Amino acid sequence: MLDPLKVAIDHNLVVISLTAYVVGTLVLIGYFLTRSELLKRIGIALAITACALQFIELGTRWNMTGVWPLTNLYGSLSLFSGMGVLIFIIFAARYDLWLVGFGVLGISAIAFGYATTWNEGYMPAVPALQSYWIKVHVPLVIASYASFMVAFVVSCVYLLKLYAEKRFGSGPALRASVAGAGGNFSVAIEQSALRTSMETTIARTETPHIQSAAANGDAFAIWLAGLPSLARLDMLTYRIVAVGLPLLTVGIITGAMWANEAWGAYWQWDPKETAALVSWIVYAAFMHLHTRNAWRGERTAWVSLVGFATIVFCYLGVNIWISGLHSYKM
Amino acid sequence: MAATHTERAPLSPLAPLKGLVDEFLILFANIGFAVSLFAVWAVLTLIGVIVDQNKGADFYWQNYTPALARIVLRLHLDNIYHSPAYISIIGLILISMTVATFRRVIPARLPALRAVKIDKIPLHAEFTVSGDEGDVRSRLERFFAERGWQIRKREFGGDEWSFIDKHNWARRGVLVAHVGFVIIAAGTTVYWATGYSGQFTVLSGNTATIPQTGATVALQQFGYRIDPVVTKSGIVYQPIDYVSHAIVTGKDGVAHDAVIRVNQPYDIDGVKVYQATYGFGITFALTENGAPVAGVPTTPLKEGEGFTIPGTSRSIEYRSFVGTIDRQTGQPGTDPRPNDPGVTIQAFDGDKPLGQALIPLGTALDLGAGYALTPQKYTLYSGFQYRYDPGIPLVLVGAIVLLLGLCISFYFLPARLYVVVTGAGRSWTVGIAATTVKGYEIFEDRFREIVAALRRVEDEPRPSAEPAPVPASS
To answer: What range does the domain containing A182 cover?
Structure first.
C-alpha cells in the first residue's frame, strides 16, 4: 500500500514543476524578445526550480515504489525534460546562453505535459526491465536526447539569425559573411584596441547587413544584433553535440550489453536499436562535416535539425507507433 | 648533323592503373564522400525501422497497399539489414574509413615549425613588456611551462620563435575512433564466422538438446507471476517474473541445477541460454461417436501446432491459450492467468479455413460427423534462446576504443601558440597567435584568458635588479 502523503507530494510536485516550466517558458520568451535583465533572472530561477522539483518528484516516486521510475514513457519523458533543462543550465551558465532558454524550457514543458498523459500510476517493472542496466542505459540515452534537444534549439536560433541576415541583404558581401559563419570567417582583430587594452576580441563581420541595418535604427536588426554571433552559436552547437554523441554512444553500448543479457544478442535489429543507430549516424556525419570549414555553419545547423528529428522519431515514433522490444503500446 | 631528340621514359604498363588507384584513394579519403555514405546508410537503416522486417510475403500483401508490398518484396526491403546493398554500404564505409585513416588521419602531424605573420592569424595579440631580453623570454617560458604547454624554439630571420603546443596527442583521437570501429567490425565477423544461435521450447518434464554442442536442458518447472495492478485506465495484468527451473548437462556430462530468468542467462560451455518465451501446451482428445480416435498426438501441442483428423481431409490447429474466459460474454477475458482457461482452435478442410471456436478446458466441442474435440489439460512450456558468440569481447573492446576516440577528439583541443619577442634594450614586444585543429572560434575564450593571464603576470611588480631599500621598521 502506497503512503497517501507521498502520493500527494508526488502529485503536487508534478503540478508545480509543470507550472514552473510553462511560466518559465513565457518569461524566457519575454527575455528573448526584450532582453530584460529582470525577466532573465526570473526565468533562470524558474528553470532551476522546475528542474530541481522534477528530479525530486522522480526521486519521490522511486522512494515510494522501490521501482526505478524510468520503466514507462512517463518516467522517461519526465527525465528527458528535466535533463534537457539541466544540461541547458550548465551550458548557459558556462557560455551565457540564457537567450535560447525559452526554446529548451518550451520543449521540456511540452514533453513533460505529454508525459503526464502516459502517467498510469505506480506500476511494478516487467521482467525485462528488472535489471541494473536500466539505471545506467536509460539515463545515458535520455541525457543524450536532452543534449541534442538543446543543440537543436541553438541551431534554430542560428538559422533564424542567418536567414534574417540573408533577408537584410544579398550579394557577394553576404556570401562572404555566410562562409564566415562556417568557420572560414573573415575575422579581424581590432588591432588598435588590442594594442592599447590587450583585449583579443574578434570583430564580428559575419552579419554585415544586420549590423548595417541596426546602425540605421532598424528595430528588428538591433534585436538580432543582440543575439550571439553565428560563429559562437555554431561553436556552441558543436560543443553540445560533442556531449550528446558520446552519451548516445555509451547509451547504445550499454543497451547492447543489456540486450545481450536479456534477449541473447547484443544487436537484434530491433526498431529502437536501428533508429538509435540512424541518429548516431546523423550526428557522426555532423561531426565529420564540422571538420570542414566550408560545411560549418548553415549546413551543420540543418544536420543538427535533422538529427533531432531522428531523435524524436527514435524516442517517440518508434516507442509509440512501431511494434518492437521497446514498444509502449498497450 | 645528328638529330637531337628528347628520350622519354617508357610509360609503365601499370600507369593507367596507378591513375585509377589514385582517383580511388582520393575519392575514398574525401570527407564529403564518407558523409554521403553515412547518409545512404542512415536512409537504408531508417527503411528497415519503418518497414516490418523478416515477415513472409503474405504479411506484406495483407498489411501494405499492393504497390508498397510489391516495392518491398521486389527491392528486398523485407530483410534489408542482410541485403547485399546494406552490407555493401557498410563495406564501403569501412573502406572509406581505412583509406581516410591512412591518407588523412595518420599523416596529420604537427604543423611545421616556421615563422608566421602573427597579425594574419585571426587569434592574435601583441603587447609590450619591459626588462632584459633573457628575463622576458624566461618569464614567458615559465608561464607556459607551468600551465602544461610544450615549448620548442627555433630561430628564423634573426628572431627567436617559440612554438608552444598543448594536447598534441589528441590529434590521434580520430585514429583511435576509427580503430574502434574496425575492431567492432572484426568482432561481428568473428560471430559470423564461428558463432551460432537458435531457439527451442521445452515442455515441463521434457528435455531439449542444443544441436551444436549436444548440451541438454531438462525443464523441471516453469513458473510465472502476473499481478493485477490498478492503474488510471483500470486493472492491468502486469508480468512480474518468468523463471525456468531446469537441469542442464554440458560437455562434462555432469548435471547442474539451473535457474534461468529474464536478464539472468545460464552459461553452458560458453553457450548462453536465455529465458525468452513461455506458453501453455494443450493435450487434446478426439473421439468419434464417443470412442477415442487413434493417431491424434498424445503429447501437448503448442500454439500454432495442429493435427489432421485421421481418415479425413480436415485438420485442427491450436491457435491460442485463453487464461480466463469471460463467462458473461463467452469471449476471452483480460486476465491471462489460467483461472477459467480455454483454448481457441481453428478448423481447416485442406487449406480452407472452416471456422474458429473458443473451447473451455475439459469441454467437448462437437465437430460434426460424430467427431468431438476436448482440450483436456494444459502443460506449461518454456521457450529459450541460445547463443554462442566468441566475438563479444572484441566488440566490447571496439566499443570502448571507439568511445575513447570520440572523447579524445571532442574534449581535448590540440592548439599551437606562436610566440615571438622583438625589440631592443628593455622594451620588448611580445607577439602571440593561436591556431587549433577545429578553427579559431572554439579557442577564442581560452586565448583571451591566456593573453589576459600573461598580461597580469607581466604587469606584476618584479624585484628590481638593484636591492630595494630596507624599511627602517617593519
So the answer is: 167-225
